[in-house]
Amino acid sequence: MRAAVLESFGTALQIRDLPDPSPTSGEVLVRIAASGVNPLDTKIRQGHAAHAGTVLPAVLGLDLAGTVTAVASDVTGFSVGDEVYGMTGGVGGHQGSLAEFASVDHRLLAPRPHTLSTHQSAALPLVVITAWEALVDRARVHPGQSVLIHGGAGGIGHVAIQLALARGAEVYATGSPASQDTIRNLGATPIDYSAESVAEYLETRTGGEGFDVVFDTVGGTTLDDSFTAVKHYTGHVVSALGWGTHSLAPLSFRGASYSGVFALMPLLTGRAREHHGSILRHATELADAGALTPRLDPRTFDLETIAEAYDIVETGRNRGKIAITPTEGPA
Length: 331
Prior knowledge:
By secondary structure, this protein is of the alpha/beta class. It is built from 11 helices and 16 strands. Strands 3, 5, 6, 7, 8, 15 and 16 form a 7-stranded mixed β-sheet that branches.
């Protein structure tokens, strides 16, 4: 099979011919129709993501959508011809999705949404798993709550808005001036972080009480801001980028709580992989009900144009999630 291989951090991906994989115990073989590109994928290529445990040479690509072409004898629930999606590799020594085929743990997969294209499906796994772990698993978002999402127009943020709305919450989201219409069109109340301080939007949006849930998808000083934007006593801050050095004093003085999300853990440790498959099944139900649609960049890319796709994501010039087609002909 053809695949894009990273041979040295910080260098260009090389197109190579590799042996076709075959499924071992617990695995299915997937012919990959689309590979989603995340900012984390580009950081791994640059050598700026030690937490991903990448072992070189490596086939990168966290997310995929494709068709099952073979099933190990001990796997139930999947059959040849099933259209699936998942976050299945690209870290911890597991082959990624920038290839024509991948043999993956079936627990990481789910039937992909019928209402979405293959490329839209490939754009979802990492971001929807992260948003679900944050808003559902950790914060337990429910009807009547107010939810603030930092970075509402981003890859994780725009999915988190839709998920919080589907959970019955009143949703607010911060973003740049250019992202206000995108946030509004997603159904959230936009907040221009460059025009309003935390104290100002806390007063105008919550009467100074704070938000029930604050989801940080940005990190750095935005996480510090989250600690002062959450409601006293019952508020919950959750972050997908909760590393670095932060003072917990503002959070503690509000009597609120904090959780972190590390969506790569099942891939890296083998723990709770079936939960990722379960999340994606829920995501499929939401998408097929019209409650979840990823923003997709309209440009198309294949293995020969991977460098351009990665450069667009690295420099923030994408107009939605980007997906690459690694196979030729019908999937």
